[in-house]
Design goal:
Largest sheet: 8 strands, mixed
Order of helices and strands: HHHEEEHEHEEEEEHHEEEHEEHEHEH
Number of strands: 16
Distance between the termini: 33 Å
Shape: elongated
Strand order of the largest sheet: 1-2-4-3-5-16-6-15
Number of helices: 11
Length: 418
């Protein structure tokens, strides 16, 4: 057997041969990154209020200026940050870049983790793991800045207001993708989300829809008030609301295919002032979740028809306040196939899974995916032996620090795939 050193035969192998060991670079940064994550967790901020978080991101990015990294602040109503790390190789100059995204905002939830770094802001906590997302993107920026060979430029998108604030749309509207803010255009985008019910350090994705479109609705039914003892003088708004709630279930049961995913959840009811008064007005609210534009349009059309029809049958009037939410988070099929190849090469085939079906949760990463080919993927947080993991948006949730290294490694691999 020959003892000669084999020459690299692929672009990936060339990069691996010419760049320092990424795992070692991540290992050297890990303790510092965990400290950053704990600091972010202790100081959560709601959407479009992420001033301290943004300042921390800027402070960390400033340390990387010697590598050529630059950044622009004040985006997306003030707290968004866009950073750009140029390529080290002349062949990559002027080429579109690869974009990596992290969301920064927290939730209006009172924390119940008991951690030493628990939230110091009453009623606000990082219950969705965005503290982990920011930390991993900062880690990726650190590691990438240390690589002597980068064939493509990399954009780091630190975005506010994912939790119902459409910060992703605000970043897109400000021009972060099209080269108007900093650096060249972004050619493709990647984002991740910590997933508490997926095994620790297992990454997953799927082509096509991964998360649902999220539309919210508030319906006010107006009838005629009367004494409860004389219902024949009323136009009963309460009865009308009750019938609307029942009739709307035909959206799922009769208006869409059994093979098409749709959720119609009406979750709030308001009405009445006393037990002996039939009120003039009653209100209900909820959300509609769909996975295709066709089903989304159908759901809206039928919602209006059903509610207005039921209201008319009860001699009432309906005012429907429809709030169009996030689009479907759609993974570009060709880029997703490429993502799987990169993931298997990076973390090993056993730690990469095909997500079998979409989730009906929503994500404003979808706005980036509407404009450029994009892939959103999950990063497993579930500790071995934990059969009932705390899930997202629960007061006991805390991002798993043991997943940070894998998240950073995936971001670095995707940014250097060529």
């Amino acid at each position: 057997m020959s003892t000669a050193t084999a020459k690299p035969t692929s672009v990936t192998e060339v990069k691996m041969a010419s760049n320092p060991d990424v795992k070692a670079l991540i290992g050297a940064e890990l303790a510092s990154l965990i400290a950053i994550r704990h600091d972010l967790h202790a100081h959560p901020e709601l959407n479009y209020q992420e001033k301290r978080t943004s300042e921390l991101v800027q402070r960390e990015l400033s340390k990387l200026a010697p590598s050529g990294l630059m950044f622009k602040t004040g985006l997306a109503k003030g707290t968004g940050v866009l950073a750009y790390l140029p390529p080290t190789e002349k062949a990559g100059e002027g080429k579109p870049s690869i974009g990596l995204r992290a969301d920064m905002d927290a939730l209006p939830i009172s924390e119940n983790t008991g951690k030493k770094y628990t939230s110091t802001t009453p009623g606000v906590m990082h219950a969705c793991g965005h503290d982990g997302h920011v930390t991993m993107l900062l880690g990726a920026a650190r590691v990438l800045s240390k690589l002597p060979h980068r064939s493509r430029g990399v954009h780091f998108v630190f975005q506010p207001a994912e939790e119902s604030g459409a910060g992703g749309k605000a970043m897109c509207d400000d021009g972060v993708l099209d080269g108007k803010v900093l650096g060249p255009k972004i050619e493709r985008m990647y984002g991740l989300h910590g997933w508490p019910t997926s095994p620790l350090n297992v990454v997953g994705s799927r082509p096509g829809p991964l998360l649902a479109a999220t539309d919210d609705v508030i319906v006010t039914i107006t009838g005629e008030q009367s004494h409860a003892a004389y219902p024949h003088f009323s136009k009963d708004s309460i009865l009308c609301v009750a019938q609307c709630l029942i009739s709307l279930q035909q959206l799922v049961a009769r208006n869409s295919s059994p093979f098409d995913n749709i959720v119609c959840s009406m979750t709030m009811i308001k009405g009445g002032t006393a037990n002996n008064i039939i009120p003039r007005e009653a209100q209900f609210q909820g959300t509609i979740r769909t996975l295709t534009s066709e089903t989304r349009s159908l759901a809206k059309k039928r919602f209006f028809e059903i509610v207005n029809g039921v209201a008319a049958a009860h001699d009432c009037k309906a005012n429907i306040d429809w709030h169009e939410g996030y689009p479907v988070t759609f993974n570009d099929p060709a880029l997703t196939e490429r993502w799987f190849e990169t993931a298997k090469r990076t973390v090993g085939e056993k730690r990469v899974q095909l997500v079998p079906e979409p989730t009906m949760g929503g994500e404003d990463f979808s706005y980036y995916a509407q404009k450029v080919p994009a892939v959103f993927f999950t990063l497993g947080l579930q500790r071995p032996g934990d059969d009932k993991p705390v899930t997202l948006h629960q007061p006991e949730f805390d991002f798993n620090d043991d997943a940070i290294a894998t998240g950073v490694e995936m971001f670095v691999a995707l940014a250097t795939e060529g």
